[in-house]
Amino acid sequence: MVDSIPTVMSAVVLTGHGDFDQLDYQTHVPVPVPGNDEVLIKVSAAGVNNTDINTRIGWYSKSNNSSEDAGWSGQALPLPLIQGADVCGEIVAVGAQVNKNRLGQRVIVEPCFRDTDTQPSQMRYLGSECNGGFAQYTCVPAQHAYNVSCDLTDIELASFPCSYSTAENMLTKARVGTEDKVLITGASGGVGSAAVQLAKARGAEVIAITSTGKSDQLLALGARQTLSRSADLVQSLGANSVDVVIDLVAALNGPSCSMF
């Protein structure tokens, strides 16, 4: 049974780039109305992802003026903004072009919205180019809200979207398969641990680079072998012994949509 929908809600609103003082808790934010192809989600859990922090501080800016190009699309953020890229909740209203059977579904949201596959400027990222999940309600395109039926809690599900979709895209682009030996750097982080599990699910042999204290956890997630960050990889593994490297350390990492 879908609850009645209020006209205003509580939300954490980003008012500018900077520290925590740029976050303003507000109790009379208008509840969004879904467009024709959108659903309105009553948020039950929202993860705090590194991309939310980086967006707030302007870390993604390519220039010295973070206010001009600090969004994931390379544009200025539409401030004030409700952040929150990782969302789990219940669909409580649908747009005119969305099947009403979706009402009441528990969903998680794939946070990278694209109008085209070739133009980065057309990309919208939840909590960056459009309002996200740090609120009681949020609107997203219906095709990006995935019905979930499992025993995981809403809080657990809210840890999935950003990190797991990033890892999945990397593995898909590398065409990782059952015959591959995959080396994953930064394997104990959110994207790294997701990559370990998703590569293992493909049947690949996973070697994880991590700190010694986290080795047992990664072996439990599916890594065949772990190496310390200071290890000589050629000496430990042999020359030309790895098919794919999922490198989460040497370059910029973030949300799941590649812009190239």
Features:
alpha+beta; four-stranded parallel beta sheet; 20% helix; 260 residues; 7 helices
Q: What is the approximate shape?
A: globular
Spatial order of strands in the largest sheet: 9-3-5-6-10
Determine the strand fraction and express it as a percent band. 25-35%
How many helices does DSSP assign? 7
> Percent range for helical residues?
10-25%
Quick one: biggest sheet? 5 strands, antiparallel
What structural class should be given to the helix and strand makeup?
alpha+beta
The sequence of SSEs as H and E is EEEHHEEEEEEEHHEHEHEHE
Number of strands: 14
- Over all CA atoms, what is the radius of gyration? 20 Å
Plain-language structure description:
The structure is a single chain. This protein has 260 residues and is an alpha+beta fold. It is 20% helix and 27% strand. The protein has seven helices and 14 strands. The chain has helices at residues 50-57, 66-69, 154-157, 161-173, 190-201, 215-221, 233-237; strands at 8-14, 23-30, 38-47, 81-82, 86-94, 106-109, 112-114, 123-125, 137-141, 145-147, 181-184, 205-210, 225-228, 244-246. The chain has a five-stranded antiparallel sheet with strand order 9-3-5-6-10. Helix 4 crosses helix 5 (190-201). The chain is globular and about 60 Å long. The model is unreliable at 252-260 (pLDDT under 50).
What is shown here, in short?
By secondary structure, the chain is α+β, with helices and mostly antiparallel strands. The chain has helices at residues 50-57, 66-69, 154-157, 161-173, 190-201, 215-221, 233-237, and strands at 8-14, 23-30, 38-47, 81-82, 86-94, 106-109, 112-114, 123-125, 137-141, 145-147, 181-184, 205-210, 225-228, 244-246. It contains seven helices and 14 strands.
